[in-house]
User: Which sequence fits this backbone?
């Protein structure tokens, strides 16, 4: 057994000492969107610090805990706060929580994030359903000895964001009366926001939004055969698209502004997954 799989087994044992909860859906909450977890029917919570070997987040506004509970009778595990590559963790640690949720039993992964808008048709406060992704600067989370227990050496990535779940998201947005954008998410390393030239590059590549998470977790989940979907909250326009300077406060502010419709949409989607 690989060291990495051993570490995952240790984390799983740590979780299992606390709860035998079997989630169907795993939900990762993005920057500023963490409050969602406080409003579900909570069964139990586990702080990341309580899990042996687990990476813990260092960013203000990112809580660090798993919330286990029910969203309209669907058993879910929610990451209230994720770890980012820019915090200095090896990429295998960044995706460890995702793999762990898969090992807890989650068959579907719902990724959310705050992102910068690249597509000029977007505006701050929009929701973008992720149709595909591009990574730049980050190493693949699958680099290293393949974890045979989880998946194959050369996993297919031709449909990272499930066609079926994309239909569920579209139908849910319509039902909630929420306008939905769609597009390609480009994961940069951060922590600096992109330069205008990098944002133009992302646009030329076919990107619609830029961020610092998500694609790596989606890849790790697909490796395990988990069905994946995702939504970006466009909290601001990316550098050069907007004349405004970018700051984390603005990201939080927009996320707060749309929190109510975000909650409604996410609940509807999970119920339909
Ligand atoms: Cl403009 N860039 C990145 N990388 N992440 C973001 C963002 C921009 N806005 C919110 N998150």
Assistant:
């Amino acid at each position: 057994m690989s060291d990495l799989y051993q570490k995952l087994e240790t984390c799983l044992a740590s979780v299992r000492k606390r709860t035998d909860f079997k989630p169907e859906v795993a939900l990762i909450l993005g920057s500023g969107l963490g409050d969602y977890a406080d409003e579900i029917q909570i069964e139990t919570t586990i702080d990341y610090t309580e899990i042996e070997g687990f990476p813990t987040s260092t960013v203000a506004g990112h809580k660090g805990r798993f919330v286990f509970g029910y969203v309209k009778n669907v058993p879910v595990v929610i990451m209230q706060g994720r770890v980012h590559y820019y915090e200095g963790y090896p990429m295998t640690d960044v995706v460890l929580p995702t793999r762990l949720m898969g090992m807890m039993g989650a068959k579907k992964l719902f990724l959310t994030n705050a992102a910068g808008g690249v597509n000029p048709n977007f505006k701050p406060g929009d929701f973008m359903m992720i149709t595909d992704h591009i990574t730049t600067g980050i190493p693949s989370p699958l680099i290293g000895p393949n974890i045979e227990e989880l998946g194959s050496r050369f996993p297919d990535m031709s449909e990272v964001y499930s066609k079926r779940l994309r239909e569920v998201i579209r139908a849910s947005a319509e039902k909630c009366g929420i306008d939905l954008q769609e597009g390609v998410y480009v994961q940069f390393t951060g922590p600096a926001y992109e330069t205008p030239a990098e944002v133009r590059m992302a646009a030329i590549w076919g990107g619609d939004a830029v961020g610092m998470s998500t694609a790596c977790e989606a890849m790790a989940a697909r490796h395990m055969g988990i069905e994946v979907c995702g939504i970006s909250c466009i909290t601001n326009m990316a550098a050069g698209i907007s004349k405004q300077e970018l700051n984390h406060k603005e990201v939080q502010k927009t996320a707060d502004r749309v929190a109510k419709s975000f909650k409604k949409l996410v609940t509807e989607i999970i119920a339909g997954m």
